[in-house]
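Memo to structure team: turn this sequence into structure tokens by end of day. - J.P.
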Amino acid sequence: MEDRTAIWLGALAGAIIGGAAGYLLFTERGRRLRADLEPRILDLITELGRAREAAVVARDTISDAATGGRHHQGAAAAEHSAPPSSQGWR
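Reply from structure team:
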């Protein structure tokens, strides 16, 4: 992609995002739309968190099956020895 094309695409994307943000933040219809969407977005975030947890469980189960359970024991020991600030991040 040429530099000019990238610049124009970036400018176009910025204009679209800026226009949408302006509509949502500064118009009455945008405020109502935000109020209507907020509970749905929070539900979506909750569902994505559940899906992530299910994926982690599935990954660990598959890994345990592949290694005969040795992987899970090592991961559990590593989690318990990790500093508290890093336990939530994987």
